[in-house]
Design a protein that fits this description.
This protein is an alpha/beta fold. It has 7 helices and 15 strands.
């Protein structure tokens, strides 16, 4: 028991630079209190003292703001930082060395019996406010962005963000993304370096529109040199202005 407690305390020092002393961690960190209470509740649950287990979990929820069902399985060195509003369902499984921030929900999407909550493999980090819903699996070492809503499996080592969550592209920004930056445009004030698939798609559309305008302008200039008279619509000069769009969204 004491070896597990030492592990829990050492994890806080590893993952929270605000921690200053063992006494502070033991007395003021609700994540530690919630984990300790869950171990007691889980033992009672497995011993078939269901009501007592639920009551212990209920008291821990009132003390810490963290709700963990006694039936949930939690591994070693799991760290719940801040913790307020964390909800962990009955059939959830959390592997060793995982980190959960405040507002995280490991919830179900069905009223049926059986496995209905997520499984987090070793070393998963779940950002503040993220919701992982259903009997899906988050692969080892994966990261879930803040406020993401995950409804599908996340591969090992991947990063998922957004609503619904999407897997980020780990490849480097492409040359066309750099061209968009030269125009002074950053889609929704988010750099293409963030690798969000939606941001990349928007950047691609912007690049395509800008290049198309440049080609049309060149074609009209060449036609005028040859003596052709472009229509009034071609002379309107209304082109896609990425710099102006950037000012609007800012």
């Amino acid at each position: 028991m004491f070896s597990r407690l030492r592990e829990d305390i050492s994890v806080v020092f590893e993952r929270d630079p605000a921690a200053r002393s063992i006494w502070e961690v033991l007395t003021t960190y609700p994540g530690i209190h919630a984990i300790l209470a869950h171990r007691l509740a889980a033992r009672l649950w497995r011993a078939n003292f269901k009501w007592l287990a639920r009551f212990v979990a209920h008291l821990a929820r009132g003390l810490t703001g963290i709700e963990i069902h006694p039936g949930a399985m939690i591994g070693r060195r799991v760290f719940i930082d801040h913790g307020m509003g964390v909800v962990i369902g009955e059939t959830a499984e959390i592997g060793d060395d995982c980190t959960l921030y405040h507002g995280v929900t490991l919830g179900g999407t069905s009223w049926n019996k059986g496995k209905r909550h997520p499984t987090l493999e070793k070393g998963v980090v779940v950002g503040a406010g993220a919701k992982i819903l259903g009997p899906l699996t988050i692969g080892a070492g994966a990261k879930i962005g803040s406020n993401a809503v995950v409804v599908k499996n996340v591969p090992e080592g991947a990063t998922a963000v957004g609503i619904p969550a999407r897997i980020l592209d780990e490849n480097q920004a492409r040359p066309e993304d750099q061209a968009a930056r030269k125009l002074g445009f950053s889609a929704y004030a988010i750099s293409a370096d963030m690798n969000d698939p939606m941001v990349k798609a928007v950047h691609g559309l912007i690049n395509h529109s800008t290049v198309t305008d440049e080609r049309i302008t060149w074609i009209i200039q060449q036609l005028e040199k040859m003596g052709a008279e472009p229509s009034e619509a071609c002379k309107s000069g209304e082109q896609f202005d990425a710099a102006h769009l950037n000012k609007i969204v800012d």
